[in-house]
Design brief:
alpha+beta, four-stranded mixed sheet
């Protein structure tokens, strides 16, 4: 599954619209823009409590690995997907 989620993350980053970061992602959820939120395994419970009402995808590794999977040189703990593009990220989500 890890390879699939990595591939899907790269696809959504290149063909969809995402916001990276805790504050931006929570705002996207509150504004009703987020279709799905992706969180790393080390995402704080406090942050998870603020993400309600949208499907949640749990990345199986830490933010450092999630950042690398997204092709970014920094850790990513939370990422909100506003437009899925050509990816099938929604198939990974759970409520």
């Amino acid at each position: 599954m890890e390879t699939d989620i990595n591939k899907v993350l790269r696809s959504v980053l290149s063909t969809g619209k995402v916001v990276i970061g805790t504050k931006q992602s929570i705002n996207a959820v509150k504004d009703g823009k987020a279709q799905v939120v992706v969180v790393s395994s080390n995402c704080p419970e406090k942050t998870l409590d603020e993400i309600k009402g949208v499907p949640l995808v749990r990345f199986p590794e830490s933010g450092v690995e999630m950042g690398a999977a997204c092709g970014k040189p920094f850790p990513i703990t939370v990422m909100a997907v506003e437009e899925t593009g050509d990816s099938d990220i929604l198939s990974f989500g759970s409520s």
